[in-house]
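Review form for a predicted model. The reviewer records the input and the model, then writes brief findings.
Reviewer: anonymous (R2)
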Amino acid sequence: MRTHASRRALRLASTLVAAGLALTVAPHALAADSSPTAMRLTAEQAKQLAAHAHVDVYGDGTAKDDATTDHGTSLQDSSGKGAPKSKASGTGAASGTAAADTPVTFTKKSALDGVTGLGATVQAGSHGYFTVHSLASIQLHKPDGSTTWSRTSDSLYADWGITHLRPWETEFYPARVLMGYNAVSPFSPYSDQGYDTGDLTGDGVPDLVFSASVGINPPTGVTIPGTKLTSGTMVTVLDGKSGKTLWSKVYAYAGMVKIVDGTLLVADSPQLNSAPPAGAKGALYGTRFSYADGALTPSSTWTYDTGETGAAAWGALEAAGDGKVAASWNLSKTATAAARGRTLVLDAADGSVVWKTDSELYGRQLHLDAARGRMVALEQADTSDAVKYQVVSYELGSGKRIALDTRINALPTAMTIGDVAPGGGTEYAVSESTLDSNMWLNSGTVRVVSGSDGATVQWTHTTKRAPGNLENAPATWHMDVVGGKLIAAAQDDTDSALAQNIGSLRYGSLTAFNAKGKISWRHAGLTASPMFQQAYRSGGDDYVRTIDPQQNIHEYKVGNGKQQSLTPLQGDLNYAQAADLDGDKKLDVVAGGTSNGVWAWSGPSLVKGAPKQLWKTTVPGAVLSVQTGDVTGDKKPEVIVAAETAVVVLDGTTGKILTTIDGGGQYVRSVTVADTDGKGKAEILVPTDALRVYKGNGKALWTYSAPEADGDVVFSDTVTGDGQVYTQYASKGALDLPDAAENGVALDGAKGTVNWKADPEAPANAVDGKLHGALLDHAVFASPNIPYADGHAVVYTWLALTDPTTSGDISTATPHDVVEIRDGRTGELLHRTVNGSPWSHGNFFIDGKGDPLYELSFGTFRGYGADGKDTRSSVVAPLRTAQFINGPGGRRLVAGGVEGGLGVWDPSVLTEDSSFQSGVGDATIMGARNYLAADLDGDGVDDMVSLNFDDHGNNRMAEQLGGGVLSLNDAGRQMAVYTLS
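Model under review:
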């Protein structure tokens, strides 16, 4: 096997040298136990550290450098806005009987919302549990994981009566449930107490209260009934039994809510709103309710006023027993005033103050130690004074403050109280993170100290950065004591420099420590949340529940750590196919995406606006491709999915798993279903490090591997034609290799033997005279309609580095795709062109026999007509993939998915030789990009299904070639179905 040297490593090394760093020297640690002098941070350092010392719960902020590579672009915080509205355009001949500029109307018939943002679970008594997602997806689940009711951000906006401030906007960004925690400062838009449960209706079912910001991020502004505020937080109570809104009220910035003995407490910090009401003061509001006719009505209220109009923020709320509540609020340090924190205990019924105590530290968390008559607090200095925190106790009766432990140069991230060490009694478990001189977190430590004095260490456990990670070490953000174990939810930085966990965005960890601080069990990677967990007891056993960032609910038994259940939530639906699954002679829709779930719906029901789910199935990983075909020979379609670690064959009628084909540790991102041996049943083609072909029962038919001299390779999407299988491959990391391997082959469909090889050569404008790999996604195309080779043509797509900004300097060249049309019978090269960026490549498509073949590259069409007659045109919309469809009145249309919606164009735009042409119809839906076109109701007109986009899967695919492109946005996610008229 050949070993390749990488130019990328040399580029990284030179970058570090230029910055005065070395690969072998990490920044020194500023640990709590080794430095007697506390750091003081500048405002800029504090801002930088704050950006590192939290979890990105809303999915809109990543480490920018992580998401960009030498051969890709990061499009962070993409607005996800749709294309401009269509206008009539074009003067070419119309398709069908309609004029080229005849408009097409999109009518939205149904929408299936996906859960978005980081999720947490909350127990709902014996009725199951709630799932609360940061982007306002809220559901009640039965104990078995099935959904009882679901609320979406849009449904909440409707209940609140909120409308758009800007009349041209048609879609809201999701409301943001206050979640998360910033370990540097309490003056931030995160809250670890943004939701709570309690039975406010008296029906025996816990109700859910939450605070959600609207119009703040992004700062679009909204119109809120009953107030002049154009942004704020909506505190809302949902009925636990039905999910209906019982009560809601707008506050300038209600960062915390809690229910104590029937009183709803709302902590409002107006100055955290960028446009607070004039003279607004921080306050704690208490409300008691009466319930009648399906609504809550305030029966009594009280207010605790901080008296502060400056930068005041609430730190924590905690039940103190006997109808009392403890609270802390903080006043930010200014040029003329010192930092201040105040902790107080109030009567929850009337708001009367029992005691109050001030501190020079900010209050961050409060925890009741009832056995010792204490309220235990985590308090933290303003970072301009010192990077330090204290564990503090307040006597419940008097408020006397005692500092139990002081930690220097460390940030507190979580705390809990429980019996987690030998000797009886309860201990205090505190997690902290230390930092390096570049404001990165370099370690995370769980410290268990004696509850008697709050300082004597019982045991500790430290986690440092994973190999290759020069940025943030994992931090622990939530802890519970259950079943004699300390359960900790933390980040997982494994492979955080790679696409599979870029910036630690996709992994989490859940660790159980025994009473001696040893790890009893641990789940990490795609099996846990980086921040949230819920411990609960059922049937005499203890369990812990967590939602991973891919939107799967995991339940583990505390005693042994074994997974008890896995429930995929409907997250982003990125891939779909249409097939008649229920036997009604009409097409149905089967889809999957970020979670491990696959769903099928009746096609006609989607068009009627009453979606009927046919089945739901759990597969081994995220869904990266969905295909259908008869692989069993029963004359019915099966559903075949590429599920990250395996290919799974599902019964199309029931969703039952028929066969699982393990990927052998490879990244399984693609699958093709076709009859390769001509025996009437379709085979399953799986391209990974080799091309493997299987029977429908999972039995291997044949395997094609690249020559050993080509080294480690990755295969592209694969197609078939003329009894042959066409595929191509490239060296892993090809763009970064001086001598990458790439080739295309035509294989005998029955045996897998090589009929011919492409042996491609570099185009004349390749800066180094070489090719650097082959595209993987939609890169090989075969159709008898291609106007070459008498209907036997096949298309391959290579990569070359061209157009250097400095003549002859390969490091300044950019990758472009090289399209070759070959005779599928012989491999003869018939036509070649160099086109756009590989990350802009969408797909190839064609209409009738002899028509031009088209390649789409981010809104630009390249046409390949007979005899080398190429054309070029473009559209205004950021069009990503396209095809021909049957439109209204028998009209042929070009249809596709754009960044933020769907669109259709008259085919004349393909041959106009014009730029930035408009379409004849569109639908705007911000979280959209992929699509499915199919006639779901049998009326002869194709319907369009808007899908989401697999940002992380696309980035991981690009990384296989040495590139990368990651575009994230926080828009809502829907699978929406439209009819065309």
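Findings: The two ends are 58 Å apart (CA to CA).
Further findings: The chain is about 5% helix and 45% strand.
Recommendation: see findings above.
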